């Protein structure tokens, strides 16, 4: 597969250093490094577990308009909220 890849300067320098040290082509170094990175990736990053949030009734305060955010903030934080 042929693609365009933007590599940060510090990574490009490390790849070039590895290229000089091993005698491999830049393409070979990049592919080798990517393979190692993918293989070493922690299992926790491979599959993110699904999070289930259960709603729980918290009750309502009688007489409070829950559609009015300003009124809710004033009730919770007092008249000094901004």
Structural category: mainly alpha
Helix share bin: 40-55%
Q: What's the shape?
A: elongated
Compute the gyration radius: what is it?
Answer: 27 Å
| Distance N to C terminus | 55 Å
Q: How much strand?
A: under 5%
Task: Determine the number of helices (DSSP H or I, runs of at least 4 residues).
Answer: 4
Q: How does the SSE layout of this entry go?
A:
Elements lengths: L8 H14 L3 H15 L2 H4 L22 H9 L5
Overview of this structure, please?
With 82 residues, the protein is mostly helical. It contains four helices and no strands. The chain has helices spanning 9-22, 26-40, 43-46, 69-77. The longest helix is centred in the middle third of the chain and has 15 residues, at 26-40. The two termini are 55 Å apart.
In short:
The chain is mainly α and 82 residues long. The chain has four helices and no strands.
Supply the key terms.
0% strand, 82 residues, mainly alpha
């Amino acid at each position: 597969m042929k693609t365009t890849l933007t590599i940060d300067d510090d990574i490009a320098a490390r790849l070039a250093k590895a290229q000089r040290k091993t005698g491999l082509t830049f393409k070979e170094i990049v592919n080798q490094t990517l393979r190692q990175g993918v293989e070493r990736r922690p299992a926790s990053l491979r599959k993110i577990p699904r999070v289930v949030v259960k709603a729980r009734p918290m009750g309502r305060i009688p007489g409070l308009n829950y559609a009015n955010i300003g009124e809710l903030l004033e009730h919770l934080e007092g008249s000094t909220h901004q």
